[in-house]
Design brief:
This protein is an alpha+beta fold. It is built from ten helices and eight strands. Bound molecules: zinc ion. The site of zinc ion (ZN) has 8 residues, from loops. It comes from Paenibacillus thalictri.
Length: 293
């Protein structure tokens, strides 16, 4: 059996199991799919171990181990006195339920709801919610590694959506922002995606709000001023970005809106999913793990 079908099988077993059996499957998941510490270190510190405190190298010494099994080194920076290890400033930092992260990420890739994920993994919905947002923060931090900044000449497709700000997820003391948010998905000939984000339009009446329409005018000014030749448009239409935009709009509907601070993060997540969709399940999971460092 190859590793990708092992992954599918483990996911199915996980959903059906309870108690110790569930714990056992989660551990098996970790053993089969975890990143090695060298992979984490190569990604974060390709040449030298850099101190996460003062961002320098050359003052860092080995300083015992960070775990009981003595597999993960602890480091000490003699310059700023900070202690750290390979998990510092990654999604793995300080997670009591670290092994749950692997199936958690797989469920997130499969679009499974927070509630169902929490039930299937035997974690609280609050924990699941915190993890999801932590993952989205890492994805945003590392966005340059999966989306390309496209020049105007390169863009052959674009799709623009305007979102009305909502009360959802905003702290009580904050007012609902008075601006709409505008997201534009862009795509070049190589099907590389980019996303721009504007937040400057005044609120429009509800019947004028546009979702997933091409070429939007905002406060009288066209946002979509990116011209492509008509031949390009005929050849390429807007299949890829509209699809992406539609996926995002559908997800947005299911979530019944997201808080303003998370809109871009969720949109980036959909860009990432489109990018990873060509990979096999194991590669997909590993690529996501590497983005959470
Ligand atoms: Zn330091």
């Amino acid at each position: 059996m190859n590793e990708s079908s092992t992954l599918d099988t483990l996911m199915k077993m996980l959903m059906k199991s309870t108690g110790d059996r569930k714990k056992h499957i989660i551990n098996e998941f970790e053993q089969k799919f975890q990143l090695h510490l060298t992979q984490i270190r190569d990604r974060k510190n390709p040449s030298h171990i850099i101190c996460p405190g003062c961002q320098q190298h050359g003052h860092v010494i080995l300083y015992g181990y960070a775990n009981r099994g003595k597999t993960r080194h602890r480091f000490h920076c003699k310059k700023c006195e900070r202690h750290f290890n390979d998990h510092t400033d990654t999604i793995f930092h300080n997670k009591k339920l670290r092994n749950h992260l692997y199936p958690f990420l797989e469920m997130m890739l499969n679009g499974i709801s927070i509630r169902k994920t929490a039930t299937d993994l035997g974690i609280s919905p609050t924990t699941a919610h915190t993890w999801r947002h932590a993952i989205l923060r890492y994805i945003e931090k590392n966005k340059e590694t999966f989306i390309e900044i496209l020049s105007n000449e390169e863009i052959i497709e674009s799709s623009t959506s305007e979102f009305k700000p909502s009360r959802k997820g905003l702290p009580r003391h904050l007012d609902i922002p008075s601006n709409t948010q505008v997201l534009q998905f862009q795509c070049n000939r190589q099907k590389q995606f980019y996303l721009t984000y504007l937040s400057e339009g005044a609120i429009k009446p509800k019947n004028q709000l546009i979702k997933g329409k091409m070429s939007v005018e905002l406060a009288g000014t066209p946002i979509n001023t990116l011209q492509t030749s008509s031949a390009d448009r005929l050849l390429h239409h807007s299949r890829h970005v509209t699809e992406l935009n539609q996926q995002f709009a559908d997800a947005y509907q299911r979530m019944r809106g997201v808080a303003q601070p998370y809109l871009l993060k969720y949109a980036l997540w959909y860009c990432l999913c489109a990018k990873l969709s060509g990979l096999n399940p194991k590669e997909r999971l590993h690529s996501l793990l590497l983005l959470c460092l």
